[in-house]
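Q: Give me the 3D complex with dinuclear copper ion.
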Amino acid sequence: MRKVAVPVLLTIVFSVILVQLFERVNLTPTLASYQGESIDTLLRVVLILASVIFSLVISFFLYSLISFRRQPGELEEGPPMEGSKALEIAWTIVPLMIVVGLSTYSARILFDIAAPSNSEQELEVKVTAFQWAWTFEYPEYGITSPELVLPVNRSVLFRLHATDVIHSFYVPEFRLKMDAIPGIENLIRIRPTTAGEYKVRCAEMCGTGHSYMEAPVRVVDEATFQEWLTKQTALTQVPVTAEAGETGAPSLITAEAGRQYAQQFGCLACHSVDGTKLVGPTWKGLFGHEVTLEDGTTVIADETYLQNSIVNPAAQLVRGYPNVMPAIYKDQLTREQIQAIIEYIKSLR
Ligand code: CUA
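A: Here is the predicted complex, encoded as structure tokens.
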């Protein structure tokens, strides 16, 4: 009797301690989405089950270790053991039930959170992941932004895309995570429930700039969201300068157009315009100033330097900054767009 009672008692004590510990330790950041609620419940169920199983194994192990240890002077072999059919059946059936039960439960949660919401109010956001930044497009409004702004309590359908390698869209506070894969559109639905500031973090090793691949997330009330939309829409209306270009077509080479392109192509995810140090050098006060390169030489940030830095970023690395800027912009941007971005940098005194 004692052989079972003591380890069972120990199991109960250890389980209670472990479960209390898990309840008190903050394993996850603030919960900020509807879908995250069922995921947190699942996590809690798994932790409780794991605590009990761990305690059970450890209790019987410790009890046997201490209670059945060799006594001083004891030299003979232990008694021969035959298997126990009842025990073997039990330790096959019970884990099987636990595994099948957990799978069914988590599969149900997965179907639940992936199900289309019945509100027609659903907001669509096209997410583009690339080495090493994010852009967020709101197709209904014709807006592209380096920052993800979402209205609180409205379901959002994210369409995930990648242009180069596999990335993973993850906002820890929303709990859900989904890969962004080149050539494939992955869908994920999230309804933010708590206003606040969070971060998208890339959760798939995607190259040297992986750890820098973040984007700000702002969950705001509906009024603030509408305000933001209006502001962004206004920014999209790029003024066309009166003077005609070489071909007679209106020229878009203005600082304002450059600002729009910089935002659209994700430049501002890495380059601040207010002097803040991000992944790349700030653009504020860059034009016309001396820049120290990785090899110790200095150059003046003139138009040629800026153009080279956009087209071939690795050629003139600025000291103190990682070589993470992708060399894709000479294909992604037209000459006019590059020129406009340079005009924008020039305007940031
Ligand atoms: Cu993108 Cu890691």
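A quick observation: The longest helix spans residues 34-67.
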